[in-house]
Amino acid sequence: MIGLFSAEGRSALRAFVNAHTLFAFDLDGTLVPIVANPADIRIDTTVQDGMVVLTSLAATAVITGRSRSDAAARLGFTPRYLVGNHGAEGVPGQEAESRELLRTVAAWERQLLTLLPPQRRAGILLERKGYSLSLHYRHAPEPRSAHAALLAAITALTPPPRRVAGKCVENLLPLGAPHKGEALVRLLDVSGCVNAFFIGDDETDEDVFRLNDPRIFPVCVGADRATAARYLLERQEDMSLLLNALVTLLRDGAVEM
Ligand SMILES: O=P(O)(O)OC[C@H]1O[C@H](O[C@H]2O[C@H](CO)[C@@H](O)[C@H](O)[C@H]2O)[C@H](O)[C@@H](O)[C@@H]1O
């Protein structure tokens, strides 16, 4: 992997970015640090300010695993595009297909209540997101056995979901639901942008990285797991530095990092 702040990374970014680039960001672990409770995320004001400026200069998108309404309430800025549920919610032109997903997810929620009786779901948080759902086990008294119980329950769901593991979470999506990679490609089409910068930290972001699309500049946050991304931002705390660099590049055509 190539460090984004290395000479090679800076030079690649400078060569890639132009006035018609779409800048797309994951939320948890990327724009905000990971915290123990999903409801407790807080976006740093320097990151917020950086996104406001970037959005005034270029097309921006947030593509998150959260629901759109949840993400919108927490961002403090308005990107041109806000896609939720790992790519399944809010992609322009895909509203009808997305509505089909709601029934499947509601059926899983009902089944899980039976598959995971109260004593087996202690400490497990079911995050209802409409088009997908997330089962968090970070706060279970024994996270490993809670995770095992979750996996057994997920195997019994009908229809079978697509399972995407995350940070102390299992995310369930209907098979065939658009993922983050498909969402980003669709945003490229509708925005008229010629290429896209994308940064994310988690397994769900690999759907973008694995596209291996030359129109996409793929950046992974953190080097703690295998990734198909070519570039690395070592620490989430460096996000405001990165936003400054992108803004400078758009304004002056030079990358200061
Ligand atoms: O695609 P993302 O924007 O990165 O969303 C992925 C999931 O993020 C959230 O869960 C994760 O972050 C929480 C807050 O830091 C943390 O407590 C949890 O352990 C992480 O898994 C969110 O709650 C999920 O809905 C997203 O799918």
Automatic annotation (TrEMBL):
EC code(s) of this entry: 3.1.3.12
Catalysis: reaction(s): alpha,alpha-trehalose 6-phosphate + H2O = alpha,alpha-trehalose + phosphate
Co-factor requirement: Mg(2+)
Pfam families linked: Trehalose_PPase (PF02358)
Pathway linked to the protein: Glycan biosynthesis; trehalose biosynthesis
Keywords per UniProt: Hydrolase, Magnesium, Metal-binding
Function: Removes the phosphate from trehalose 6-phosphate to produce free trehalose.
NCBIfam families documented for this protein: T6PP (TIGR00685)
The protein's name: Trehalose 6-phosphate phosphatase
Organism whose genome encodes this protein: Trichlorobacter ammonificans
